[in-house]
Amino acid sequence: MPLNRGGMGTIAWHACNAMMEAGLLHRVIAPETGAAGRLEPLAQDLPWPFRKAMAAMNRLRWHSAHDAWFDRWAASRIESGMDYYGWMHQSLACIRRCHQGGGRAWVDRGSVEPRLQRRWLVEEYARHGLRRDPMDSRAVNRMVQEADETDFVVAASTLVARSYREVGYPESKIVVNYPGVDLKVFGGVERREPQNRMRFVFVGQLSLQKGIPDLLRAWKKLAPSDAELILAGVVPPGEESIILPLLRDAPHVTWKGHCQDVPSLLREGDVLVLPSAQDGFGLVVLEAFASGLLVIVSDRVGARDCVIEGKNGFIFPFGNEGALGERLAWCLKERERVREMRKEARETAGRFSWEAYGQRLVSFFKT
Questions:
Q1: First-to-last CA distance in the chain?
Q2: At what angle do helices 354-365 and 7-21 cross, to 10 degrees?
Q3: What torsion, rounded to 10 degrees, do the Cα atoms 356, 30, 207, 315 define?
Q4: Dihedral sign for Cα atoms in the order 55, 57, 63, 64
Q5: β-strand partners of 297
Q6: pLDDT of 311
Q7: Helix (H, G, I), strand (E, B) or coil at 98
Q8: pLDDT at 190
Q9: Taking the complete model, does pTM exceed 0.90, yes or no?
Q10: Does residue 271 share a domain with residue 141?
């Protein structure tokens, strides 16, 4: 990911800033660092021809080869014995390089343990009649090797941490560091005035992994005439035959496609719904809280750690379409209560700032 341009790249940017402020950062290596900002003096990225080659790998969906190649290139620029912090699936060569001279390695993991992730996704695909493996076995094996060889796995939630402990990794090897939210971006502008037409919002890939079929079927059963379901995201290749018919059949659904302005979209909503089959955290949950939305998440969303049942949102068992429908129906019935829950949602977001994320990260290195 390019540094500081969304997703993992933005999390990495905040991690690097915290390390730099603590005097711990020696170098930042990323495929592209044009948005590094204050990190620019310490940033090193791929030469332009290599970036073009890696972009081509991504277009061809050669993600495993892409990440392994970048890992080897990054490792060649690390001094033996330096401590290392990186991301799962892109760190095996770097871990081994730092260990050559006695350095320590931390590897960040934003999803559940890869063998469990693969099993959950295979089960979900099978539930909808797709008989294929959603994860490259080489990628799974590589991530298992990284977890085996690194000194610490940094989990994005207790869901992720528990998935590693349950397959035998020692408690001392797993640490949890929740990501943060930019309160100025997502909480700094006034929301729209409450209206009679309630708006439920989903942001992310319209995929089986994100639980979209369950959401659309639950919504169709409710068929509320005084509410709207807004979906922002794209349908991944190979899942169109499942997702698109459900989209066409569900009433009062607005599909916006890829969303360029998530803060504005969230400020127009009342409830965020994230019914994922597997989400190691789900940054959009914190962004929704900061924007004053309550949330409905499945119990396979790591950000459930931030949800206080009945106070700022609800948690339902993944795959239980009826339970999801009950939460949606409650929101439609208790509209005044939904508005009252906005205060608790914003207060929750305030406890998950990027500053707090950085402080926890720095504490790992000093222990």
A1: 29
A2: 60
A3: -10
A4: negative
A5: 274, 315
A6: 96
A7: helix
A8: 59
A9: yes
A10: no
Q: Is residue 2 part of a domain?
A: no
Question: Hunting for tokens 């294929």 — which residue is that?
Answer: 132
Report the CATH number that the domain containing residue 287 is assigned in CATH. Answer: 3.40.50.2000
**Residues 92 and 166 grouped into a single domain:** yes
Q: Are residues 51 and 94 in the same domain?
A: yes
- Smallest Cα–Cα separation from 154: which of 166, 169, 141, 142? 169
Q: Are residues 223 and 246 in the same domain?
A: yes
Number of H helices, E strands in the chain: 16, 12
Same domain (yes/no): 161, 195: no
Mean pLDDT of successive 10-residue stretches along the chain, which has 367 residues: 84 95 95 91 90 85 86 93 94 96 96 96 94 89 97 98 97 96 81 73 97 97 93 94 95 93 93 97 96 97 97 97 97 94 94 95 91
Same domain, 156 and 263: no
DSSP 107: E
Beta strands in 163-197 (DSSP E): 174-176
Are 290 and 183 in contact by the 8 Å Cβ rule? The answer is yes
Please give the share of the chain, as a percent, with pLDDT higher than 70.
Answer: 98
Write the Ramachandran bin of 168: left for phi over 0, alpha for psi from -120 to 50, otherwise beta. Answer: left
Write the CB contacts of 249 (distance below 8 Å, at least 6 apart in sequence): 216, 220
Residues 113 and 220 in one domain: no
Residue 217 inside a domain? The answer is yes
The DSSP H or E segment spanning 216 is helix 212-222
**How big is the chain, counted in residues?**
367
Instruction: State which H helix or E strand residue 294 sits in.
Output: strand 294-298
How many domains, the chain? 2
Are 206 and 237 spatial neighbours (Cβ–Cβ below 8 Å)? no
User: Coil, helix or strand for 315?
Assistant: strand
Opening angle at CA 344, ends 339 and 346, nearest 5: 95
Do 209 and 237 belong to one domain? yes
- Look up the domain containing 144 and give its range: 7-180+353-365
Q: Is residue 119 part of a domain?
A: yes
Residue 337 lies in a domain: yes
What is the residue whose two structure tokens read 């890869």? 114
Domain CATH code at residue 34? 3.40.50
